[in-house]
Amino acid sequence: MEERYSLVDHPASFKSKGIGQFEESVLPLIDQTISRDASEVEVLKQMVSKYKGKKVEFITVADKKGDFNRMTIEVIDWNEAKKRSEDIIKRFSKSAFTSDYVPFGYRMNDEGKESLLLAEILDTPSPWIRTYSDDSSDGWAGHYYGNSLRNCAIIPYTIPDQYIGRDAFELVKEFEALAEENNEAKIKAAGFDNLHHLNYAISRAQKNITMGIAEAQALIDEQTKQQAEAMNQNIAAAKAGGLLDPIKGISMEDWAAANVQISNGRPLDEVLKVLGTEKPIWDAVSAEWMARMSQDTTFAISKVYGDAFTNPNIGKFAKAGGGAAPQASGDVEKIKNDFELYIKIMCHQNMASTQGVDAASVLKKYGLSVVDWSTVSAHWAPKMGSDLTLAMKMSPLMEKYNAEFATAGGGSDINF
Question: 332 to each of 329, 357, 364, 380, how far by Cα in Å?
Answer without folding.
Answer: 5, 22, 12, 12
